[in-house]
Design goal:
The protein has about 130 residues and is α+β, with helices and mostly antiparallel strands. It contains five helices and four strands.
């Protein structure tokens, strides 16, 4: 994989950082706490979809939610209602994508809505 440019916006201690990488060799250096590891974490996270600074997806979602000023949608792996509760309550996700639980008929929209209401999870109202 070759990376030409990476832009970090509101990620860890990077307000807005644009890095251009040389195709032959790029050296990242700076004082302690200047964000060198954050650059590596961003590249790692974008490459494989998880962070080396957190052990679980909910920790990663929470850290991203705390670092950005846009809504964060957790996606992937919602196999049961309890997964929804964990994602919203433990990770601070703003929304949950739930294709898996619906696609494989593990639940239906009405049951999910009822679960959310019973567990104090905000649900957007709609007309069926």
């Amino acid at each position: 994989m070759e990376i030409g440019t990476i832009t970090l916006i509101s990620f860890r201690n990077h307000n807005k950082t644009i890095l251009n990488f040389d195709p032959d060799l790029t050296v990242i250096w700076g004082k302690n706490g200047s964000g060198k590891t954050s650059v590596l974490e961003a590249i790692y996270n974008l490459s494989i979809g998880k962070s080396f600074k957190t052990n679980t997806k909910k920790e990663l979602i929470k850290k991203v939610s705390e670092s950005v000023s846009i809504p964060v949608i957790a996606s992937g792996g919602m196999g049961c209602h309890e997964d929804l509760s964990k994602a919203v309550k433990d990770s601070s996700a703003d929304a949950i994508a739930m294709a898996d639980i619906l696609h494989y008929d593990r639940s239906d929209v009405e049951s999910i809505r009822n679960f959310c209401h019973a567990n104090d999870i905000n649900v957007r109202e709609y007309e069926a």
